[in-house]
Amino acid sequence: MNYYEEIIKEIEENIDKGDYSEAERLIRNELSVSYVPRDVESRLNELLDKVKRDSYQQKSLSDEQIEEYLCKDEIHQLLAVDELNRKNLRNYIDTVQSYLSGDGYLNSKVLLIDSLIRQEVNCDFIYNGETFNPCKVILPEKSPGFLSALELIRERFMKDPSMMAMAEQLLYKEVLMALPDTLSKDEGFMAADKIIAYILKAFESAN
Fold first, then answer.
1. What is the per-residue pLDDT for 115?
2. What is the spatial distance between Cα 108 and Cα 14, in angstroms, rounded to a whole number?
3. Number of domains comprising the chain
């Protein structure tokens, strides 16, 4: 076994036992050397990606931390919702019910609603004083309002990809923030007009 085989074996052993800091230290030491064989460099980068991924998963919030974070500031709420969105939300109905019906950061709430819809959770939730069932709500990007607005935006900015990309991002945010309501075609047309005007004004000011 040559040097590189030995060091990769040592790195893999550290990963297997959960010592991610030591594994990362060894990887970065090797990558900092002026010359590393291409195949070895590729393997080291693969292991570095694995270390980052596995160490992040290891730092996942506990259920108690999720509950705690949902009662804190906007950043903590986003972290808690991000954690919930990677889980099966059917196992967190009470937590979700309480969060959506109470005070909280609007952006993190709509992200949670979006995940409920994508997971097709069949349960009634109260949000902004109204009751909705996620499995009966159309995905934002499939709503009539989104599709009609998208068509107008693409027609208007067909020759300017940068404007089109910005407009599409703003449109998606528009339909996301409307959740759990679905934009109608007419509402989509109005949203498109507003976004197009905003983009044109923004680019005009920049020039």
1. 96
2. 36
3. 3
